[in-house]
Design brief:
Length: 394
Amino acid sequence: MRSVSAWGCARGFAVALLVAVGVVDVALYAGSDGSSVLPGLGTVWQTLVVVLVGLAAVLWPARRRPHWLTPQVRTAVPALASLLLTAASLLVRGPVVFGPGEMTILLSLLFIAVRHCPPRWALVCGSLDAGALLILPVRGDATLSSDAMGLEMIGLVLVGLVAGLASYLRSMDYRRTVAVSDTRRSERLAIAADLHDFVAHHVTGILVQTQMARMMATTQPQDLDPVLAGIERAATEALASMRRTVGVLRDTGEGAADRRPVGDLAGIAELIENFATPGQGVVLRRDPAVTDDLSHEVQAAAFRVVQEALTNIRRHAADATHIEVVLGQDTGRLEVTVVDDGRGGIRLPPAAHGGGFGLVGLNERVTALGGTMDTGPRGAGGWGVRAVFPARKP
C-alpha cells in the first residue's frame, strides 16, 4: 500500500509540475509584445493551444484513452503543432519567446515515444519530438546567437539523457517480457510433464487390465469383477489427476497448493498398492532412515521415478511376476530403485508404447536436483531403474 500511495503522490506531483510550467509559458507569451504568428489567434491563444495539446497527450488517463489515441498519435501531433508554430514564427518574424512548459512537454513526449511506441514509430516520433525541442531557440529568428547556442547545447544534453533513460527502461521491459515468457513456457512444460506422467500411468493400467479382462471373459468369467474394479479405479484416478492439474492452472490463490498433483513418499505406497495385477507381486522396501520431512521437490522426484518405472513395466514387461521398490538413504543422499523380472512376453499395441519422453523428462528432473539416474537390464533378467539425488534440495 505504501508503494501504491507513493506512486500516486509522485504522479500527482508530476501532473501539477507539468500544469504549472504550462501556465508559465502562457504567462510569458502574455507578457511579450510580439504579434500573433497564426492568423486569427492572439499570441496567448496560439501558445495555449500548443500547450493544451501537449498536456492532453501526456496526461490523458490510460483507462479513459480512446482507441485511436495511440502512442504514435500522442507523441507526433503535439510535436507537429510545435513545429508549425516555430515555422510560422520564422515566416512572419513573430515572438521569439518560448517557455519551460513547452520544453518539458516535448521531453515527456520524447520519453513516451522512445519507450512505448512500436520500434519503427519510436524513431519517427522521437525524432519529431527531439527536432521540435531543438529548434525552439530559433523561433522567430533564424540567426543563432550565443544564448541560442547555449540553449541548443542544453537541449541536446536533455534529449540525450531522456532518450537514454527511455531506451534503458524499454530494454528492461523487453527483458522482463522475455523472462515472463520463458517462465510461463517452463511452467507449461512442467505441467505437461506432470499430466503425461499421471495420465499415462493410469491409462496404461486401464489398457493392461482391459486385455486381461478380455482373456478372462472366456476362461475365468467369475474372476472378472476385481479386474473391472481395477479399471474403474484407474479411470477415476486418471480423471482426478487431470482435475488437480487443471486446478493448479486455473487457481493461483492459497488453495492451489492443496490441489497440486499428488507426488510424495506417502503416495508411493498407495501407488504400489493399486498397481499389481493378478499374478504379480509388488514389494516396497523402505529404509527407516528415509523420513517424510524431505523437501517437496525431492519427494516428488522419488514418486515420479517409481511411477515412470511402473508405467514402463506395464508397457514393456507386463509379464513380470515380481517387482521390488526400494527407498534408501545414506550420507544425505536418497536412493530410489525399481527392479522387475519381466521378460517382455506380453506386448501392448504399438500406439500404447511411450516415445521415450517419460525417461528423458525424469532424467532432467533428477539432474536438476543434483542427482543421477541409471536404467538398464539386470544380470539375472528383468530391468532396473536407479536414481540417486541429494535428500535436500540444493
